[in-house]
Amino acid sequence: MDIKEQLEQIKKNALDMLNSDSDLESIRVKFLGKKGELTAVLRSMGQVSPEDRPLVGKHVNEVREAIEQAIENKKSSFMEKAMQAKLKAETIDVTEPGKKPEIGHRHPIAQTEEMLVDIFVGMGFSVVEGPEIEYDYYNFEALNLPKNHPARDTQDTFYITDNILLRSQTSPVQVRTMENTKPPIRIISPGRVYRADPADATHSPIFHQMEGLVVDKGITMGDLKGVLELFAKKVFGENTKIRFRPHHFPFTEPSAEVDVSCWECGGKGCRVCKGEGWVEILGAGMVHPFVLRNCGIDPDVYSGFAFGMGIERIALSRFGIDDLRLFYENDERFLKQF
Ligand code: DAH
């Protein structure tokens, strides 16, 4: 075989291989590499006569270029194919329905709190919050519940030290507010409270209350009744009546427990009101002169009323739920219903 035929053969072999084998790099090495077939031909140029050398050199270059070109072509066709495959794999079907994000909603306790706050804000009250970790002084002492007072028993709570505790009621916010603000005062204070009660259908070691306090010159029990009546109608319906039953709270005098006519039966007596026709919803009264004085307000000039209600109790009635624990279990199947 002369060198011309040899070159043509190399070219043919290379092109044939490119058609059947996809390992382009090893083909390049085999034919064009340092120890490749074409390089071997170049090395044997010594045997070519000097006049033929330019021609053979030219031929070698043509073959090299042809092979290089063929490899390049193959490479771009591979890349094109890969791109097509990728595009095909990554097509987006814009007509496919999207993934719907799960949107939650306010917890029924939070919803109830919001509703209560709205009602009182509508009557001109402002919202004040207080700490959940509270001094014994604010939770009890200043509210006319000295150490060893028997009424503390019903509000046993969690103690951090002898003088620091988790507040058992929102009433300490009354004291903090009166210490800091001159009358007229018209506030509500919703928030979390704690008691050392085991959880059952009607008790929970953590629950929520909302406190109300009004202090000004000439405030009477009539004002208290008017405010609570409006509140009861807004929450339980226009035909709702309220009734005051005498009670004892150390921080109010006189004190009352306040009932609303049963929202279920309208007062005739049913399962919800246990045949009573009335349901107790809150405690209230006229702020005790001792409490006013403890907070630096002169009880001979000013008077006030206060009330406190359990938010859970209102939520239970509003949503017709019979077990408090459901509010805290965080079972979505329950929460989704409200
Ligand atoms: N703090 C009382 C409780 O937890 C509720 C209460 C009763 C609050 C009468 C008041 C009030 O402000 O005047 O049982």
Could you characterize the architecture of this molecule?
The protein has 338 residues and is of the alpha+beta class. It has eleven helices and nine strands. It has two domains: 3-89, no CATH class; 108-335, Bira Bifunctional Protein, Domain 2 (BirA Bifunctional Protein, domain 2). The chain is 40% helix and 19% strand. The strands form two sheets. Strands 1-4-5-9-8-7-6 form a seven-stranded mixed sheet, sandwiched between helices. Strand 6 (242-247) and strand 7 form a beta hairpin. Helix 1 (3-20) packs parallel to helix 4, helix 2 (24-32) packs antiparallel against helix 4 (53-89) and helix 5 (108-122) crosses helix 10 (311-319). The model has no long low-confidence stretch (mean pLDDT 93). It binds 3,4-dihydroxyphenylalanine (DAH). 3,4-dihydroxyphenylalanine is lined by residues 169, 171, 211, 249, 252, 283-285, 306-308.
